[in-house]
Amino acid sequence: MALIVAKFGGTSVASPERIQMVAKRLISIKQQGNDVVAVVSAMGKTTDELVGLAAALSKNPPAREMDRLLSTGEQVSMTLLAMAIEARGYRAMSFTGRQAGIKTSTEHKKAKIQLVHADRIQTAIEEGYIPVVAGFQGIDEKGDITTLGRGGSDTTAVAVAYGIGADVCEIYSDVDGVYSADPRLVPRARKLDVISYDDMLELSSAGAGVLQARAVELARKYNVVIHSRSAFSDAPGTLIKEDDPSMEKAVISGIAHDTSEVKITIRDAPDESGIASKIFSALAGNKVNLDMIIQNVSEEGSTDMTFTCPESDLDKAREVVENVIPVIRARDYVVDENIAKVSLVGTGMKSSPGVAARAFTALAEADVNIILISTSPIRLSMVVAADQVEVAVRALHTAFGLDSDSVFEETMLSAEELEAKKKKGR
Amino acid sequence: MALIVAKFGGTSVASPERIQMVAKRLISIKQQGNDVVAVVSAMGKTTDELVGLAAALSKNPPAREMDRLLSTGEQVSMTLLAMAIEARGYRAMSFTGRQAGIKTSTEHKKAKIQLVHADRIQTAIEEGYIPVVAGFQGIDEKGDITTLGRGGSDTTAVAVAYGIGADVCEIYSDVDGVYSADPRLVPRARKLDVISYDDMLELSSAGAGVLQARAVELARKYNVVIHSRSAFSDAPGTLIKEDDPSMEKAVISGIAHDTSEVKITIRDAPDESGIASKIFSALAGNKVNLDMIIQNVSEEGSTDMTFTCPESDLDKAREVVENVIPVIRARDYVVDENIAKVSLVGTGMKSSPGVAARAFTALAEADVNIILISTSPIRLSMVVAADQVEVAVRALHTAFGLDSDSVFEETMLSAEELEAKKKKGR
User: Fold this and answer.
1) Complex ipTM, two decimals?
2) A58 and B86: CB-CB below 8 Å?
3) What pLDDT does residue B420 have?
């Protein structure tokens, strides 16, 4: 007897057949005596297709229109899922973000959830319905539709779980939990039974794709237990919850990698105060999402300023940098797109000195050159050449004793995906 | 300087390229000093695709969910059109049925417009926007999304035109107006410059596809002038408006035909009172849309009851008839799917005796056998064999002096459509 929120991503509702599977799953949760609320993403590639249509019509579509366009994707999947449940003799009712009472900030395309008025969902549960909620969307104070940005459906699920006081927020996807490293890169990666919010947050931020960092952040804030599990099996996945003493205390929980960033270096800027401020204020003003920032001061009183940002922000970043270089009297700038970031994450790191040394040694022995380093109390990130990411992750995984005895069977990875992954890594 | 509502159907917004054309058209209306409100249908076959998805998941999808599903189609086209207009430097704002203030009855999938609160549209016009309104949808008193049924976008356009006091409701489609007969059947069909609501209503009801009968009915009720014209040319089309003395008074305005009906005859029912009531109450109870009803009493005190209904209602009709036959002690029933209805329409008919006689003579001379006849004060409908529909329409067109001097050029009909039309006629 539990109250469960079950979120299904785009892959899980990509076709009528898949939607039937989701309906079955929800009914089986209900049959076990639980109450359940479903949260769904848009079917398969719907969102991308809508973005493509908009791009064909406008270089810079008005944000309000864009949000209303994108929000239709979840409205289709939610109604179809409700129909599939009803066709199996159970009662279901779909809810748009508006109807689910999801109030957000007014920043179109990346609105933040501010409040969940879950009364209507609550009433529907009490009346025996399986509520089906559109992920990724809400309304702002003006009543306009907003969307939460990519991966926003995870965030919706966590918010709804909090709003109705659910026991757990189950997030179903095509992977069966959180791994000590990407199993596609590291065949000996281990599935974790449990991981703390902090570690999961660092892993997500560092590129582990299984959960959206902002959803984990929201879960941590409101203490919502997340269960990351497979839509295609009944096996338990990974619980993400408050750090507690019973949790296994490995030094490193997992290793994440991210090949979606680029590195920009502004060379030979005068080493004066205010330079960094000018550069990074300009970047922030143009909404470039910065990740790592490193400054080297040379002996001649000039400085090199390096930062990384998502590849998708590269054009915006170039624009800013080209404008700022004459202002700060720097020499020039260089862009490196062939980088990968590898991150060790673990709350246990705080109490274990020598993690960095062990990591650098492991990479040196594997002949991997480290380009940039950045750290947090529970994370150590190193930027390496993109074509060395696989070697680097494997070496670290072994060096920190994470290798499992059994080799991961790649049931979930198609040949095309593997190829795409490899290409990206190069 | 006029206030214009411009409605574009699914074909006109079927692709980004077509949407660009619509945007250009709207801007050109605006540039001529007018104010304009757009009403759009869903892109191309979107609605059919959504219906197909629902059918894959449920034999009998809940009406509330179905309406929310279908309403997404227009939400996509309206936002895309608004983006296309904005990209050309004009201001546009999209409106769902809810936001456009279109209040309907609660009958899902065939809701009726009850009220238009056009304040938000009006304000947008005053602020210089081109409002883009989703056709086909509204909300009921409970706040649930409703849809107006097939062709509902025409009705939305007329309702919005009335709500904002527009000078004209332009309905753009792939045909350039109302013809004296379907130009695909009758190469000498003439485009009408103007036609009365009454005649248009009869033509639409009798199968002329260019405008939805209910939209014409609403226009007549609220005296909204409709201009039916081509989305692909600037040539004026046909005005549909109040009958006025200046209108050309042809006896017959046009000839419509309809191959989408079937004929069912219940044979040898006892000729007693209450039989017709039993049959047609049962049909109404099962929501079969009846068109013609004809009763023949035979000499032996038994009666044949014949009616026509849309082919799409045939299964429901069969069910009713099979149940009712034992109750009324009729012998059996026969279904004829290969029929076509040909209708002469004209307000002038009222004051011109001999129309029926002239029609029957024309068909007899063309060797067309008349199966059923039904009349209204301004319409004469005859059911003939489906494979004789073309001959029948042409013979009548000539007999009533409707032939134009020039032969219609079939610019708008593809070979496939012609073939499909012919097949259906067989």
Assistant:
1) 0.73
2) yes
3) 58
